Fold:
Amino acid sequence: DQQVKQNSPSLSVQEGRISILNCDYTNSMFDYFLWYKKYPAEGPTFLISISSIKDKNEDGRFTVFLNKSAKHLSLHIVPSQPGDSAVYFCAAMPSGSARQLTFGSGTQLTVLP
Amino acid sequence: NAGVTQTPKFQVLKTGQSMTLQCAQDMNHEYMSWYRQDPGMGLRLIHYSVGAGITDQGEVPNGYNVSRSTTEDFPLRLLSAAPSQTSVYFCASRLTGNQPQHFGDGTRLSIL
Structure:
């Protein structure tokens, strides 16, 4: 039973346009959400996060939106650049002392020049 | 600053062999974790540690052992390799449970 789901395995976007990556979760105990970016042959790198007490967090071209009632979050990249082409993983962490991450299956973003 | 270092980068084993995947971090992080990444399944937690001498099981612990004798090192042992353990393994660390994880570059393991 996947508690964090990324239903789109891949997404292609034209350079300069907006990329929107989606993520759904089922566990109500999750209270902290993160996005990681992964290039081939490298480990994932942290991109942006959001706490459940917020509904939006921005960092430069990257914005994460959280809709708690729908158990849905999204990552917006504006404007998209060819260097953004990578696999993006959504991850969630529950409240409490353990706080281990549960990852989605990832979305391969390709930004076309 | 090396961050999280994993060795080896690649390894091929025969079924039944044992081996240890090494992970070291130089950031004085308390929390360390091992994940495996399989196609279409994201990263799944194998074992984790919240400090030296403390380890616990994650989502997919069977067939793996860990120990944490120092803050810096968190080796993952495959006891008797099986083809189902063919995967890419990532080690990660973080200072506290409230911070994002730093990942190593992974070990690609093939079991024949």
About this structure: The radius of gyration of chain B is 13 Å. Chain B touches chain A through 23 residues (CB under 8 Å). Chain B has a mean pLDDT of 94. The longest strand of chain B covers residues 43-51.
